[in-house]
TrEMBL record:
The lineage of its organism: Bacteria, Pseudomonadati, Bacteroidota, Flavobacteriia, Flavobacteriales. One of its GO terms (cellular component) is efflux pump complex. It comes from the Bacteria. This is HlyD family efflux transporter periplasmic adaptor subunit. Residues 67-215 form the Multidrug resistance protein MdtA-like barrel-sandwich hybrid domain. GO terms for molecular function: efflux transmembrane transporter activity. InterPro entries: MdtA-like_BSH (IPR058625).
Length: 377
């Protein structure tokens, strides 16, 4: 019985070995599977050379074009007025900003003017006798002399003898002393040099003001300037009166400005050139931060593409017979996200979006947006 079982196991092993060997021979002659060629779908664009505007981006904060820092040149008590001297207060041109008590100095001016008048009056009899030809003009001067008005200019002296006579009586020196006191009297009132708004007030009514003390700041709120620092490469592109479009940080507001001034020198440390952009708008305030786009120049026969499409060595990918290839180009301007290129033949098919792992000779298929729309219907 044992011999029969061993014989049966041996026969089964021979049969299994034969079938396994037959399968190995069959698999050896089976053809290898052919790998399918992968064709990647890409977004393409056809080159149409045109005029491209070179726009220089910049940003900065607004500063009033006309600004006055108010300082006292005399000493006295700040007199109260109908309009409070407070930040945000508006003033018209010529309106009094600050009035300092000048009663004491005014009395000195009137005293000096009275002395001048008396001195001229005292020489009138001598003029009638010794210089009758000039008597009348000095009499007319006295007739027009008003203590409550500014001292009139002395009559013009026509001869040396008249000049010696008048100067010898200290009339000329007294006249200039009076004019000096009158000039100082005018400093007790500070008037607005233009219509604007007070942005800083450092004194209050009733306080003692000292000579040389800063009183506040006054600006013209109708015209602002924005100072921007640009790369020295843009020095030849900036032009005065060039229009500029400015945007608020959130992009909701747009303002029109112009390049008012361009600095003639380049900063040696930063290698930048400073330009000033003038803008007028009632909605603007000093200190606002804006973004500017300056139209520098126009480049003929050029295109603008994303910077990611430009390869090292100034090449870009093109599509020729469903195969990627590269051609040399000439970059003429770089911005943060785009580049302006020249020397690309009209009608050349280029990539519109960068393809990861792209290489020369890669098989591609342009994306057909129209067929996609048709299939979705």
């Amino acid at each position: 019985m044992r011999k029969i079982i061993l014989s049966a196991i041996g026969v089964l092993l021979i049969v299994f070995s034969f079938l396994f060997a037959k399968k190995l021979i069959a698999d050896k002659h089976k053809p290898k599977p052919v790998k399918e060629k992968v064709v990647k779908t890409v977004f393409t664009d056809t080159v149409k050379n045109a005029t491209v505007k070179i726009v220089i981006p910049a940003n900065g904060s607004l500063v009033a074009k006309r600004r006055v820092e108010l300082y006292a040149e005399v000493q006295g008590v700040f007199k109260s007025s109908r309009v409070l001297f407070k930040p945000g207060q508006k003033y018209s041109k010529g309106q009094t900003l600050i009035s300092i008590d000048a009663d004491e100095h005014y009395a000195s001016v009137q005293s000096a003017k009275s002395e001048l008048y008396n001195t001229i009056s005292a020489i009138m009899p001598d003029l009638r006798l010794d210089f009758p030809e000039v008597y009348q003009k000095w009499q007319n001067y006295l007739n027009g002399f008003d203590l409550n008005k500014s001292t009139p200019k002395l009559p013009e002296m026509t001869s040396d003898t008249e000049n010696y006579f008048i100067t010898g009586r200290d009339i000329v020196s007294s006249y200039y002393n009076v004019k000096n006191l009158e000039q100082r009297l005018s400093k007790y009132k500070i008037a607005a040099p233009f219509s604007g708004i007070l942005t800083e007030a450092l004194v209050t009514e009733g306080s003692l003001i000292r000579s040389g003390q800063k009183l506040g700041e006054f600006i013209d709120a109708s015209v602002y300037e924005m100072e921007v620092a640009l790369s020295k490469g843009y020095a030849s592109l900036l032009k005065v009166d060039e229009p500029v479009v400015l945007h608020s940080l959130d992009g909701t507001e747009t303002y029109k400005g112009r390049v008012s001034r361009v600095n003639g020198s380049i900063d040696a440390t930063t290698q930048t050139i400073t330009a000033y952009i003038e803008v007028e708008n009632d909605a603007l305030k000093e200190g606002m931060y804006l973004e500017a786009h300056i139209d520098a120049r126009e480049e003929q026969d050029a295109i603008e593409i994303n910077r990611s499409l430009l390869l090292e060595g100034d090449d870009i990918f093109v599509v020729r017979d469903s195969v990627l290839d590269v051609i040399p180009v000439k970059p003429v301007h770089f911005s943060e996200t785009t580049v302006v290129l020249k020397n690309i033949p009209e009608g050349t098919v280029i990539l519109k979006k960068a393809v990861p792992g792209a290489y020369t000779g890669m098989l591609v298929k342009p994306f057909d947006n129209q067929s996609t729309k048709t299939n979705t219907k």
